[in-house]
Amino acid sequence: MGVVIESSVWEPNPLLYIFLFFACCSSIFLFPYASSSNKTPVLFDHGISPSFLRFQRNFLLVYSLASVMEGLGSVFGEFELAYHGVSREQMVESLCVGYAAALFVGTFLGMLSDLIGQMKVCLIFCILHLFVGIWKRIAKRPSILVASICLSLANSIFSFSFETWMVIQHDKQGHRLDTLNDTFWLMTFFESGCLIGSQIFSNWLLGNNVERSTIFPSTTTIFLAILCIIFVAKGWEDNPQAASFKEYSMSFYIYILGDKRIWLLAVAQACLHFSIAVFWILWAPTVVADGREVHLGLIYPCFIGSRMLGSTTFPWLISGPSALRTEDCLVYGFAILGVVLSIVAYDYQEIGVLVTLFCLFHACVGMILPSLSRLRTLYVPDELRGGMMSLSAAPSNAAVLLILLKGGYYQTIGNAEIIAIAAFGLFTAAGCMHMLKRWGKQPYHNWHKQ
Known about the structure:
Blueprint: H1 14-34, H2 50-83, H3 88-116, H4 118-138, H5 144-158, H6 161-172, H7 179-206, H8 210-235, H9 245-257, H10 260-287, H11 296-312, H12 314-319, H13 326-346, H14 351-379, H15 385-409, H16 415-439
Helix pairs in contact: 1-11, 2-5, 2-7, 2-8, 3-4, 3-5, 3-15, 4-5, 4-6, 4-8, 7-11, 7-14, 10-14, 10-15, 10-16, 11-14, 13-14, 13-16
Protein name: Molybdate-anion transporter
Organism: Quillaja saponaria
GO cellular component, one term: membrane
């Protein structure tokens, strides 16, 4: 008699989704009652001017549309490539080309945005997505390399231009400085929510018709890009530099390249971006190692939901009952991230433990992202913010390009070694934040006015 081996596909407990949902709601709605200060989040502060609420909501609307476009690309990217018969080697090649474009072109887009205005560069972001969406509709087999270059440049713009525009306009319109903190964590919260919404929408589009599922995402991207262009062009004010390129270069050299504290902040940002990129490249191979069967589509919302929960802890940490310095929060956050990736790199784990560690990783990321945004506002002049953010991404893009070549193309380095490198970078970032806390600096903005 033959032996029947039953195989099961691992799925997260549905109670995890309920826990993340109620934890986020509780964190948001209970904070005003637990805060020891009179300051409460924007969601509950009825004393804030209607002009700020209108400004914030309009920005978050456009930022959410841009996040959905980014999310559709990440959810459908590999599926579309496989549908068109693209091999694994070609996928790795397209990733390498994309990161190379982000390194050699995207690095300077932030400086360009400071000179010509953030609004124009945000429009370029929309146009790049619009171009790729239209091309996929009219071409039977679009070039994956050109699409990868366009989407990588759009992702580079997304990482700095929207935030920079918001901060500059926030200051220009004279809104309260403390409300920036709320907008920072709401950006992370809304972006994460849009990523989950993009996956749900993508699964609905997928259905049972494979041909239709490769067309609808492009159509949706075209629609969202046009909508975003209209909102940005008609509702946003531009803020180009009044200074010449020479004056901008001198200011950048003095205030950015000449300040060791901003170097520490830039290194920490680069290490975080590198670790996030490594995670999204390797999380699925790590989970399904040794032939384990896992429903990956149900795990993805757990990670993003954890990031949403992490973002809601930001106001608790900086202005809650036991407020901490932002640098202290980042030291602890980066150290936890480093420990999590170290465990994944050097110790075999069951799927449940791995998913728990990865959720903890994203919860810390959700807290770190608005914290870094706040430090950029403290230390970096607004007129140089875009250039600083894009330049700090260059080491990360270079490192990811290197590991793609060594690990994905030539296969001379294993996944565990790559994760270990990312863990070392996170411990380095924790050290940078500790040094930044010790050295201190007179902030660029006078935050004592809050």
